[in-house]
Amino acid sequence: MKFRPLQDRVLIRAVEQENKTAGGILIPDTAKEKPTEGEVIAVGPGGRSDDGKIHPLDVKVGDRVLFGKWSGTEIKVDGKDVVIMKESDIMGIVVRDAASTRKAA
Question: Tens of pLDDT along 61-75?
Fold first, then answer.
């Protein structure tokens, strides 16, 4: 199934958080919080202003974004859990610099 969001809506696949804290303590599934980071998998054409012009979105497919715990609506697309929300619910785009990418590898 293909899904194309309308207007200024964005489809996001939530990224699962670590199962372990920095100190090495395992976190059980029941104690995990809702994800607040995800990857954009589809975007709408943009929001419409009062004069009818379409303003494109700042996020694009493939961006890693941060959003509020209770933002958006959870739906299933092709059997996978995704979140659809307005672009205004997104707090920002996660930018990874080359130094942190090398360190993680």
Answer: 999 999 988 889 999
